[in-house]
């Protein structure tokens, strides 16, 4: 299943602090293109998605609405109030351009247990965005997460370095790390999702991994939409995922 992150539609809107382009309209187009999930990241600094976007999307989105957020009290309260379908917990740094690494679930286990418990108690599916490391997968299971989204950033970087040639040991190794973390998550009863820096060139090998449930993709799709429109950009990605 393809989850489409529409943050960067809001990035363009915020460039002029106006109404266009509207993330609600973007969600509609993405749904028509075949998205099974719409994702927005409500950042602490509100650099793109705003609180009112989450409120409006909650009313309009017909597929799953996934709120990416930091594990703060403020964000937990918003997710519960808006009754989103799913939350993906991510680490958040003020200076970062985009999410830079996975959540340290192992290092913050007790806090994660509390946050996951509060969200899950309201019927929200909770996913941990983590690096492809066994100790983080195991900690996610202990914290009660329903799913792990395995960070594909290192795989994507290796793909560029290797020119997409899987005979390159680093690239093959990064894909294998995603695969084995996904298998470990599934063996522990969690869903195996993946995302970050996936694009039209590197997505197919990840989409083909055994047991993968969801791919979460944003920047590549919104960039492609500038040329072909969002509905078509989502359709093209859907075709590659198969
Ligand atoms: N998954 C998570 C947890 C993310 O933080 C992001 C970026 O917002 C994405 C997926 C999408 O990454 P990209 O925009 O590189 O496709």
Descriptive key words:
11 helices, TIM Barrel, binds pyridoxine-5'-phosphate, alpha/beta
Q: What does the secondary structure layout of this molecule look like, with pairings?
A:
Layout: E1 2-5, H1 7-14, H2 23-33, E2 37-41, H3 51-60, E3 64-69, H4 73-82, E4 86-89, H5 109-121, E5 125-130, H6 134-143, E6 147-151, H7 153-161, H8 169-187, E7 191-195, H9 203-207, E8 212-217, H10 219-228, H11 230-241
Parallel strand pairs: 1-2, 1-8, 2-3, 3-4, 4-5, 5-6, 6-7, 7-8
Helix pairs in contact: 2-3, 2-11, 5-6, 6-8, 7-8, 10-11
The structure holds pyridoxine-5'-phosphate.
Residues 5, 7, 41, 68, 88, 90, 98-99, 129, 149, 195-198, 216-220 line the site of pyridoxine-5'-phosphate.
Q: Can you describe what's shown?
A:
With 242 residues, the protein is an alpha/beta fold. It has a single domain (2-241), classed as Aldolase class I (TIM Barrel, Alpha-Beta Barrel). It is 48% helix and 17% strand. It is built from 11 helices and 8 strands. It has helices at residues 7-14, 23-33, 51-60, 73-82, 109-121, 134-143, 153-161, 169-187, 203-207, 219-228, 230-241, and strands at 2-5, 37-41, 64-69, 86-89, 125-130, 147-151, 191-195, 212-217. The chain has an 8-stranded parallel beta barrel with strand order 1-2-3-4-5-6-7-8, surrounded by 9 helices. Helix 3 links the parallel strand 2 and strand 3. It is globular, with a radius of gyration of 17 Å. The model has no long low-confidence stretch (mean pLDDT 96). The structure holds pyridoxine-5'-phosphate. Pyridoxine-5'-phosphate (PXP) binds next to strand 8 and helix 10.
């Amino acid at each position: 299943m393809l989850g489409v992150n529409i943050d960067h539609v809001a990035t363009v809107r915020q460039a002029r602090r106006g109404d266009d382009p509207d993330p609600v309209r973007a969600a509609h187009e993405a749904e028509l293109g075949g998205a099974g999930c719409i994702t927005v990241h409500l950042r602490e600094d509100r650099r793109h998605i705003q609180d009112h976007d989450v409120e409006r999307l909650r009313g309009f989105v017909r597929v799953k609405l996934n709120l990416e957020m930091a594990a703060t009290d403020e964000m937990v309260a918003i997710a519960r109030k808006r009754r989103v379908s799913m939350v993906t917990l991510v680490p958040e740094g003020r200076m970062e351009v985009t999410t830079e690494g996975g959540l340290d679930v192992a290092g913050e286990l007790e806090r994660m247990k509390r946050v996951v418990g509060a969200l899950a108690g309201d019927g929200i599916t909770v996913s941990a965005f983590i690096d492809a490391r066994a100790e983080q997968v195991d900690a996610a299971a202990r914290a009660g997460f329903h799913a792990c989204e395995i960070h594909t950033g290192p795989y994507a970087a290796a793909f560029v370095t290797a020119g997409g040639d899987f005979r390159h040991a680093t690239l093959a190794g990064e894909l294998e790390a995603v695969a084995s973390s996904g298998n470990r998550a599934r063996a522990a009863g969690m869903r195996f999702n993946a995302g970050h820096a996936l694009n039209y060139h590197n997505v197919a090998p990840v989409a083909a991994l055994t047991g993968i449930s969801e791919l979460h993709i944003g920047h590549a799709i919104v960039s492609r939409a500038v040329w072909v429109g969002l509905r078509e950009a989502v359709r093209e990605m859907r075709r590659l995922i198969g």
